[in-house]
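Same chain as my last thread, 150 residues:
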Amino acid sequence: MRAPETVPRALGHLRVALDDAYLRTSRQLGLTAPQAELLCASLRPAAVGRLAELLRCDRTNVTHLVDRAAERGWVERSVDETDARLSVIGLTPEGERLARRFIKKLEAQLAPLLAGWSGERQQRAVELLGELADELDRAGAASPQPGKQR
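reply #2:
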């Protein structure tokens, strides 16, 4: 395959590869990609609205994902300590095990590549990818769009 010629093309290539890795890995664990994303996002307990922001999804769709995950015993709701009107979504022990297994499987897919990279190169990649993500987040915040549907 020919290498992308521009940063936007390289990012598009990376997005497709990441989508494929998420789909492949989630299927290995009997999950859908959105379920895996929810579990990973819920490693830090958060309100549904915050999860919707993190996942770039409509709040209603996240609520449905949370409902199905709760039925499977992966997440649980608790009352927010600072605002009793809010529910906080957190992982159950089973949900946390599943999220961590998912992350480990994703990391294993990159292990052969990263084994050949120096610590400095890996750190630079983290910094560059973080800068790109932050800039895209800022651009998205500057021009609000309807919620992403899942």
